[in-house]
Amino acid sequence: MPIYEKLMGNPFVDVGVCAICEWLGHNIQPEQITAEDLKQIVKDFVPLAANWDKWTSIFTRNHRLTNGRQSDRVPKFKKRLLGYIDQTVELGQVGDCMGCGRREVGSIPLLDKTGVPLTGGKNSNFFPVFSEGAGYCPACSFAIQFLPLALVATGSSGGRFLMLHSKSWELMQIWTARCITGVNQRYSQQQSGGCFKPDYENSRNGLFYMVREMISELEEMQLYDEITDKDVSMEVYSFTNNNQFPDVEIFYIPSPVFRFLYDAEQNPYTDTWYEIVRSGYKRGKSEKDYKKSRNLVYEYLLEGRSIRGFFLSRRTQKQRGNWELLSLYLQKVRNMKPARIEKIKQVGDLMAESIRKSRKRGKRQLRDFADANTYAECRNILLRIFEDRIYQHKEPEPLFSFEDCVEYLFISSDNAQSWSDELDDGELDEEQKEQLIHSISDNVTFWRETRDLLLFRIYEKLHSWLTEQEDD
To answer: What residues make up the domain containing 88?
Structure first.
């Protein structure tokens, strides 16, 4: 049995093992790591870590590299690590280690936050059965000491860190390799040692910077199709382990969001996607300010909230991006069915045509439609456009059918089946159907979503016409 395996389950251990693999290079896998490899990384890394910036925010001031006489720190840390190697055994079938669960802790001292970030202090109330720390076997204790190689420093002082854990070992490798490249660049430029620091004060912005870096690497390595056949969801820990204010926030990027971001970063969507992202910042910010300011597009994606509003600019009556990019987002992230997307597109095209034919009246209808605050207001404007198509433009077909309304436009997915069943019963005559559609309350789930998507399509179709109207 090997010393390590991929993704044993504990985030700090898995990240530490990944850091060891990427530092050793040659595409070495966890199952291939030997005791000699571990001794080599001790020889390489510990002298660098002695001058590591913000080490105390990862392992506190009581760590062997930050506590005691300067001349004793490196020898003591090396001794501790070599002691872990001497006591390391191969993986078994079962054990009491909190890292791998397949080895015994044995005589290894229990670890607190000095040995494992965010693991409590010297207070038995933090640990099971009032023990003095958390139990990790020698191999897992060793691996955790190298996780700084895979961290991204963020925050105003660089004392907050991003750590990726994913079911995809390949994504963890790409993240870690980028971090180690950044570490080496700091040393080559004769800067002080420390974690990779791309100068993002805002952790969420730093996270999406890393996602872009990973996407770029996937594209260059032509690995996207191979990786996205698997679960590429990601958990990113934003933490600080300092003694005064230890804290952690966990960001979750599900597979559909990552896949959408990958597509949005490719041509022909790249420029329009960045325009949408920039709209999430406050106006008037410089590029430097972007790194520390909140971005609502990023925050909404992390919180599972819709970003459809950022595809629109009601103030200028313009859309950001195109229908293809919006459709991509709706399908991959919002899980919207293609039939519904296509129906909204069709209705939007018909509305755009009617608004253009109605000229000034149409412009007023469009403005009122954009400003609608209730379903009743939205519905009334649609009815006026409905009437214009029939009485003014003599169109042979309505804007949309009743079935379109309840199945695609203004009905929640939870209630769609019950509405469809009621329609299929054949017990409603035309007058009853009309009464039914007017009885839909302001709580209809999708009315705002549908209104925004219709607006997007109308703005896209009428872009040139609206611009000409502004010049009149």
So the answer is: 11-150
Q: Which residue is listed with tokens 């909404």?
A: 300
Q: Cα separation of 112 and 104, whole Å?
A: 18
The position carrying tokens 């003095």 is: 132
Which pLDDT belongs to residue 227?
75
Q: Quick one: three-class SS letters along 182-214?
A: HHHHHHHCCCCECCECCCCCCHHHHHHHHHHHH
Q: Which CA distances in Å does 145 have to 111, 114, 266, 457, 470?
A: 12, 10, 37, 53, 63
Domain-embedded: residue 184: no
**Tokens for 7?**
């993704």
* Residue 143, in any domain of the structure: yes
Give the DSSP letter of residue 232.
Answer: -
What DSSP string runs through 384-405?
Answer: HHHHIIIIIS--SS-SS-HHHI
- Distance separating the N- and C-terminal Cα atoms of the chain: 79
> What's residue 56's pLDDT?
87
DSSP designation for 406 = I
The strand pairing partners of 252, in sequence order, are 235
Phi and psi, residue 160, nearest 5°: -125, 140
Last residue of a domain, one of 89, 124, 150: 150
**Residue labelled with tokens 């309840």:** 406
Distance in angstroms (rounded) separating the CA atoms of residues 33 and 35: 7
CA distance 404 to 438: 15
pLDDT value for 451? 93
Number of domains, the chain: 2
Is residue 342, in this structure, part of any structural domain at all? yes
Q: Rg of the chain over CA atoms, in angstroms? A: 29
pLDDT at 423: 45
Q: How many CA atoms lie within 13 A of 366 on its CB side?
A: 33
**What pLDDT was estimated at residue 447?**
85
* Cα 446-303-241 angle, rounded to 5 deg: 170
Spans of the chain below 50 pLDDT = 413-423, 432-433, 435-444
Q: Where is the domain boundary, 83, 118, 150?
A: 150
pLDDT value, residue 411: 61
The reply to whether 101 falls in a domain is yes
* Polymer length of the chain: 472
Handedness of CA 13, 18, 21, 23 (dihedral sign): negative
Dist. CA 232–CA 378, nearest whole Å: 39
Identify the H or E element spanning 273: helix 270-278
155-166 per-residue burial string, b: 16 or more CB within 10 A, e: under 16: beebbbbbbbbb
